[in-house]
Specification:
The protein is mainly α. It is built from 6 helices and 2 strands. Helix content is about 55%, strand content about 10%.
Length: about 110
C-alpha cells in the first residue's frame, strides 16, 4: 500500500482508496465522517493493540505470525512490549521477519 492510499473494509469487502485522486470536498467529508464515527484516536490505538497479529497478515507474513504465536506473542501489544534485542534472539525469526516487524511497528507509530 502506498503512502496516500487507505484500505477500508465494508461488510468484509476491502476497498482501497487513493486519496490523491479525491477532491478536497470528498477528502474533508471523509475526514469528518471518520472523526465522528471513530472519535478519539486513543480508542483506535487501544483497539489495534488488543488485536491478534493474525489480523495483520498483509503486514506480517504467516511464518512470522506463526513463530510469534508459538512463543506466546499473540497480540499487537505483546509484540510492542518486545525489544528489538528480544526479537532478534528468537530462533526462527530471520532478517526478513525482523524487517517486517520493524516496518509494522514503525507504521503503528512507535
Amino acid at each position: 500500500m502506498k503512502e496516500h492510499e487507505i484500505d477500508i473494509y465494508l461488510d468484509g469487502v476491502k476497498t482501497r482508496l487513493d486519496l490523491r485522486k479525491m477532491d478536497y470536498t470528498s477528502l474533508r467529508t471523509l475526514s469528518l465522517k471518520l472523526q465522528r464515527i471513530l472519535g478519539d484516536n486513543v480508542y483506535i490505538h487501544d483497539m489495534v493493540l488488543e488485536n491478534d497479529l493474525y489480523y495483520f497478515r498483509q503486514e506480517l507474513s504467516g511464518k512470522t505470525i506463526s513463530t510469534l504465536h508459538k512463543l506466546g506473542i499473540i497480540t499487537v501489544a505483546d509484540l510492542m512490549a518486545c525489544s528489538y534485542g528480544d526479537l532478534a534472539a528468537i530462533e526462527g525469526l530471520e532478517n526478513k521477519s525482523l524487517s517486517e516487524i520493524v516496518g509494522f511497528i514503525k507504521e503503528l507509530g512507535k
